[in-house]
TrEMBL record, chain A:
One of its GO terms (biological process) is regulation of DNA-templated transcription. PANTHER family: TWO-COMPONENT RESPONSE REGULATOR. This is Response regulator transcription factor. Transmembrane segments: none annotated. SUPFAM superfamilies: C-terminal effector domain of the bipartite response regulators (SSF46894), CheY-like (SSF52172). The modification 4-aspartylphosphate is found at residue 62. PROSITE patterns: HTH_LUXR_1, HTH_LUXR_2, RESPONSE_REGULATORY. The keyword Isomerase does not apply. Residues 10-127 form the Response regulatory domain. Gene3D superfamilies: 3.40.50.2300. The lineage of its organism: Bacteria, Bacillati, Actinomycetota, Actinomycetes, Pseudonocardiales.
């Protein structure tokens, strides 16, 4: 993890609700010096310009925004600035939106109800190159890779299937276990847990297997 | 008719009318009907060509008129479609239909005569009476349609004429005349009876005639009553919705205005209200259920909804946050309802005793089982040291599970938090996404 001597992580906020941005900014700036908010934006265009200007390490990205949402910001920023890491933030329960942002390149997803301390920890972790799976995201990914009638055929087993171990890790994440707890539960090292999670993230981003819209409507997500 | 034939006809009707759960209700066709749209409606309901149904009725008519009786019963007890469908019948179809009607009536009369079921001379007046009956009943259908169009519900005369004016009245009178003629001829021809018996027969015949003629109208009165009852139910429901919104949403909004100094409290109130409203709208017994659900066979809903409702209730009651993740989904049945209730109790226990702000719930639907994990990072406890009077908690969860063939495991130790693992086997095929 981190030591207190390191530079604060530069964070950029993208959310179309000014009130929410203000809240997060106050929280992040007051709670810790591990992170520093360097800018914020309320629309896709503003965000693209702002990120190019301020060169943050981590962008906190709202999934739902007018004109394309978080995924659009990702699509426009990533080719220019591949080093900027994105962490999705949402009140939405809609699996297809969340998965879409992950597939567009976000390194994790947390709900807006996350506590400030947790949020800081998540920001630092994605800045270090890890993935951040909230229990909800773990559930969505398990759902997306589930074998059930109507799921798309498997074209590339390498990408389209989760290994039993990866599935175990996801299940424990969904049950609210921390990496350390997962490690002791499965008798593996924390490093190995991180490797599994990163591998799951890669598969989620690269697999072409699921027809998410259909899957989501099957789930009847409101 | 002998009892056997009646029974047969009733059986026939019964098999047509037994509603298969996922089939829509049967209606008589409004457009493209030859007499009453019974055959068409039946064909739509069973998904077969209408010609087959008409032929079947015609052939059944050969069984001493069983087909005619079945047709009549379906006519009376199956409602008309309220909407006109655009399918106009071809002239060929129409000819076929009339040919089959003639064939059916012919067969009924012929078979009746041959088997001595009715003596030959009665056949003609009987046929006359039946035609009269058909005319009157058709008129009832027509007036019903006019009433749908106008939306009128006006008194007794309205029930009969349905705003059809003179032509309707003339048609009804003509039909009644035919029926009375038919019955009268039978009564008069029934030989050398003395006056008393003749009068008796005439009275009985008239009563029967009136009863038979007015069937559609009595039925309609009954239906009007039930329609009005439905309307009243709807009004009550609106009142209930208004009351609910007043008691919940409006109160919360007032609270939020009062608490506007404390954004966290505002957020908590808003979140819990949103969840409560969602649960109320979309929950297992919610108001916002899809309209296609039949009121009587409303399903109990989905596992995910029930679990969300349970989590929400505990969140509100104990002011903690319950993070819930559901993978897959399944229709609720008794054992899954028990599972949800057990899970709810486990969450309540965590909220009460663990001393934490957050509880994690994870449910997974697999082909053969549904598992739920309820976890907190709280105090934990030593299972061996639970005082006797506190056994009720674990036992009621365990009891609920084992009664339905499920299992319950508790992992806990002082300072380690607690995880309750619930597993319920399901029948194959239930664990659908």
């Amino acid at each position: 993890m981190t030591d207190s001597q390191r530079e604060p992580v530069k964070v950029f906020l993208v959310d179309d609700h000014a009130l929410f941005r203000a809240g997060v900014r106050t929280e992040l700036d007051s709670i810790t010096d591990e992170v520093r908010v360097v800018g914020e934006a309320g629309s896709v265009a503003e965000a693209v310009a702002g990120i190019a200007r301020t060169k943050p390490q981590v962008v906190l990205l709202d999934v739902h925004m007018p004109d394309g949402g978080g995924a659009e910001v990702l699509r426009r920023v990533r080719p220019e600035l591949p080093d900027v890491v994105f962490l999705a933030l949402s009140v939405s329960d809609a699996a297809e939106d969340v998965i879409a942002v992950i597939r567009a390149g976000a390194r994790g997803y947390v709900t807006k109800t996350i506590s400030s301390k947790e949020l800081v920890r998540a920001v630092v972790r994605v800045a270090d190159g890890d993935a951040v799976f909230s229990p909800r995201l773990a559930g969505f990914v398990l759902d997306a890779f589930a074998d059930r009638p109507g799921s798309a055929p498997i074209s590339d087993p390498e990408l389209d299937l989760l290994t039993p171990r990866e599935r175990d890790v996801l299940r424990l994440l969904a049950r609210g276990y921390a990496y350390k707890e997962i490690a002791s539960e499965l008798f593996i090292s924390v490093k190995t847990v991180e490797t599994h999670v990163s591998s799951v993230l890669r598969k989620t981003q690269l697999s072409n297997r699921y027809e998410l819209s259909r899957w989501a409507s099957d789930r009847r997500l409101v | 008719m002998t009892m056997d034939h009646v029974q047969e006809a009733l059986d026939h009707v019964a098999t047509d009318q037994v509603a298969i759960p996922d089939k829509p209700k049967m209606f008589r066709r409004r457009s493209g009907r030859a007499i009453a749209g019974v055959a068409g409606g039946l064909a739509d309901h069973l998904g077969v060509p209408v010609v087959w149904v008409r032929t079947a009725f015609a052939l059944l008519a050969a069984l001493n008129g069983a087909g005619l009786l079945a047709y009549g019963l379906l006519w009376v007890f199956v409602q008309q479609q309220t909407e006109e469908t655009a399918k106009a019948p071809t002239s060929k179809e129409r000819q076929q239909a009339f040919g089959l009607i003639a064939l059916g009536v012919g067969l009924a009369v012929a078979s009746g005569t041959l088997t001595g079921f009715i003596s030959g001379w009665v056949a003609v007046p009987l046929a006359v009476a039946m035609i009269g009956l058909a005319v009157v009943w058709r008129e009832a259908d027509e007036s019903q349609r006019r009433r749908w169009r106008v939306g009128a519900k006006d008194g007794f005369a309205g029930a009969f004429l349905g705003g059809g004016g003179w032509s309707a009245a003339i048609r009804i009178v003509a039909g009644v005349a035919l029926v009375i003629t038919g019955i009268g001829v039978v009564a008069l021809r029934s030989g050398s009876l003395d006056q008393v018996q003749f009068a008796l027969i005439a009275v009985i015949a008239t009563l029967i005639g009136v009863a038979v003629l007015t069937i559609p109208f009595w039925l309609r009165l009954v239906r009007d009553l039930s329609d009005e009852r439905k309307a009243r139910i709807r009004t009550d429901e609106r009142a209930e919705i208004a009351a609910h919104l007043h008691d919940s949403v409006l109160q919360t909004l007032a609270l939020i205005q009062k608490q506007s100094e404390q954004p966290r409290e505002v957020a908590r109130l808003a979140r819990s209200q949103e969840r409560e409203l969602r649960g109320w709208l979309y929950g297992p017994n919610g108001y916002g259920k899809p309209a296609e659900m039949d009121e009587e066979t409303a399903t109990t809903g989905q596992l995910s909804e029930a679990l969300a409702t349970a989590c929400g209730e505990v969140e509100d009651t104990f002011a903690i946050s319950v993070g819930q993740v559901v993978v897959g989904d399944a229709e609720l049945d008794d054992s899954l309802v028990a599972l949800v209730q057990a899970a709810r109790e486990a969450i309540v226990n965590a909220a009460k005793h663990a001393g934490v702000e957050e509880v994690s719930v994870f449910a997974e639907v697999e082909p053969t089982s549904v598992t739920v994990f309820v976890r907190d990072r709280g105090k934990g406890f030593d299972p061996d040291l639970v005082p006797d009077d506190r056994h009720g908690l674990a036992d009621s969860i365990r009891g609920r599970m084992t009664r339905h063939g499920g299992t319950c495991k508790v992992r806990t130790a002082p300072g380690e938090g607690t995880e309750v693992q619930l597993a319920m086997p399901v029948k194959a095929g239930k664990g659908a996404a």
